[in-house]
Specification:
The chain is α/β, with parallel strands linked by helices. The chain is 37% helix and 10% strand. The chain is built from 8 helices and 5 strands; from the N terminus they run H-H-E-H-H-E-H-E-H-E-H-E-H. The protein has a 5-stranded parallel beta sheet, with helices on both faces. Strand 2, helix 5 and strand 3 form a beta-alpha-beta unit. Helix 1 packs across helix 2 and helix 2 packs across helix 7. Bound molecules: thiamine diphosphate (TPP). Thiamine diphosphate binds next to helix 2.
C-alpha cells in the first residue's frame, strides 16, 4: 500500500497562528453557548489544526470524497475544537460556530456524522469512535483503498475497555492504515484525587500509556502535542510505518494557552464568566467580537 507525503499548506508559524485564532473561537463559542467543554479542546487544537491544514488528504468542498483520509475525534466531547478547525478549513461558515449546542444546530455538543460536513464518525460515548475508526480502516483494506484513518483519543478515554478490544483487533489484522493519537493531557473529567481533593492524578503515569499500547502490539511514538513541527514530523512517521498499527502519545496540557485554565481539571467543562472570557481573549491577543481572530 502506498503512503502519501504531507500535503502542501501553511508553514509552521502560520499553523501556530491558526491555532491561536482557533483557541479564541473556542473560548468565545463556549462562553456564548453557556455550555460545553474547554480543557480538552484546548489541549487538542494544535494537533487538529496540523492534521486538517497539513496532513489529511481532504477536499473541504467535497466532504464525502470517497478517497479522503478519515479523522475520527473519538474524544467527542472536544467537538468545539473539531468544529472550529472544520470551519476555519472551509467546511462551513465560521459564523455557524455561534449556533453551537442550540437545539436546531448541526453543531451539537458531540459530533454527528449525519448532520455536519467533515465529520467522519459520530462520537461522544468514550471509546466508541475508536472502534468506528477501526471499522473504517478494515473496510478500506477490504476495498483496496489507500487512505489513512486517524483516530484521536483522550487519555482518560483509554480507561474504556472497548478501546483495547479495537487495539487488539488492529494488531491481529496488522492494520497499517490506522494511526491512533492519544491526547495525553494527564487529566480527565474528575479522575482520582491525590493528596488533596483539588489535586487530580493523571489517568496513566510515567510510561504506562506507552507500555500498554506496546503490549497490545502497536508501534508507539511520542511527541509534544503543542509543538506543531514535532506533530507534523511524528504523524508523518506514524502514517508511513508499515506492517502494523501505530499509536502516537501526544504530550499536552489540559487548558493549554490560557494561564488560569492550564492543568486545572475544573476547566474540563466550565463556562467562563465575562471577566474570565476577557482575560482569556487578552492572553490570546483577541477580542470578544472577533477582532484580530
Ligand atoms: C462512556 C462514557 N462515559 C463517561 C462519559 C463522560 N465523560 C465525558 S468526557 C470524560 C472524561 C474524559 O477524559 P479524557 O479522555 O482524558 O478527555 P480530555 O481530558 O481530553 O477532555 C467523561 C468521563 C462519556 N462521554 N462516555
Amino acid at each position: 500500500m502506498s503512503k502519501q507525503t504531507t500535503v502542501a499548506g501553511p508553514e509552521v508559524t502560520e499553523l501556530e497562528d491558526l491555532a491561536r485564532r482557533a483557541r479564541a473561537h473556542i473560548v468565545r463559542t463556549i462562553a456564548g453557548a453557556h455550555g460545553g467543554h474547554l480543557g480538552g479542546p484546548l489541549s487538542v487544537i494544535d494537533l487538529l489544526i496540523a492534521l486538517y491544514f497539513r496532513v489529511l488528504n481532504i477536499r473541504p468542498d467535497e466532504p464525502d470524497w470517497p478517497d479522503r483520509d478519515r479523522c475520527v475525534l473519538s474524544k467527542g466531547h472536544s467537538s468545539i475544537a473539531l468544529y472550529t478547525t472544520l470551519a476555519m478549513r472551509g467546511y462551513f461558515p465560521i459564523e455557524e460556530l455561534g449556533t453551537f449546542d442550540a437545539i436546531d444546530s448541526r453543531l451539537q455538543g458531540h459530533p454527528d456524522m449525519t448532520a455536519t460536513p467533515g465529520i467522519d464518525m459520530s462520537s461522544g460515548s468514550l471509546g466508541l469512535g475508536f472502534s468506528g475508526a477501526l471499522g473504517i480502516a478494515m473496510g478500506a483494506r477490504a476495498a483496496g483503498k489507500d487512505f489513512t484513518t486517524y483516530a484521536v483519543l483522550g487519555d482518560g478515554e483509554c480507561n474504556e475497555g472497548i478501546v483495547w478490544e479495537a487495539a487488539h483487533a488492529a494488531q491481529r489484522y496488522a492494520l497499517d492504515n490506522i494511526v491512533a493519537i492519544v491526547d495525553h493531557n494527564k487529566l480527565q473529567q474528575f479522575g482520582w484525587h491525590g493528596d488533596t481533593l483539588d489535586h487530580r492524578l493523571s489517568p496513566y503515569t510515567g510510561s504506562q500509556l506507552v507500555d500498554r499500547w506496546s503490549a497490545f502490539g502497536w508501534k508507539v511514538f511520542e511527541m509534544d502535542g503543542h509543538d506543531i513541527g514535532d506533530v507534523l514530523a511524528t504523524v508523518a512517521r506514524a502514517r508511513d510505518h508499515v506492517g502494523g498499527p501505530v499509536a502516537v502519545i501526544s504530550h499536552t496540557i489540559k487548558g493549554k494557552g490560557i494561564s488560569f485554565m492550564e492543568n486545572n481539571y475544573q476547566w474540563h467543562a466550565r463556562v467562563p464568566t465575562a471577566e474570565e472570557l476577557a482575560q482569556a481573549l487578552a492572553e490570546l491577543g483577541a477580542t470578544p467580537a472577533g477582532g484580530r481572530s
